[in-house]
Amino acid sequence: MEDLRFLTGRGRYVDDIASPGCLWGHVLRSPHAHALIRRLDVGAAKAMSGVRDVYVAADLAELGPMPCMAAVKPLIVPPRPALANGRVRHVGDPVAFIVAESEEIARAAAELVEAEYDALPSVVDGRAALADGAPALWDEAPGNMAFHVEKGDAVAVAETMRRAAHVVEIDVMNNRVIVSPLEPRAGIARYDTATDTLDLELTGQGLHGIRRQLAEFVFKVAPERIQLSAPDVGGGFGMKNFLYPEWILLLWAARKLGQPVRWTADRAEEFVAGAQGRDIAAKAKLALDTTGKILGMEIEMVANMGAYLSGNGPGASAVAASTAHGGVYDIPAIHVDVRGAFTNTVPVDAYRGAGKPEANYIIERAIEAAARHMRRNPAALRRQNLIASFPHKTAMGMAIDSGGFVGNLDLAVARANMVTFEARREEAAARGKLRGIGVGCFLETSRGAPNEGAEVRFDNDGTVMVAVGTESNGQGHETAFAQIAADRLGVPMDAIRYVQADTRQVKSGAGHGGARSMHMGGAAVVKALDAALVLARTLAARLLQAGEGELVFAGGGFSVGGSARRIDLLSVARESGNPFGTHVMNMTDVFTFPSGCHVAEVEIDPETGAAVLERYTVVDDYGRLINPLLTVGQVQGGIAQGIGQALVEHTVYDPQSGQLLSGSLMDYTMPRAEDFPNFDITLVERPTAANPLGVKGSGQAGCISAPQTIMAAILDALRPAGVRELDMPATPLRVWQALQEAGH
Question: Model-level pTM greater than 0.85?
Answer without folding.
Answer: yes
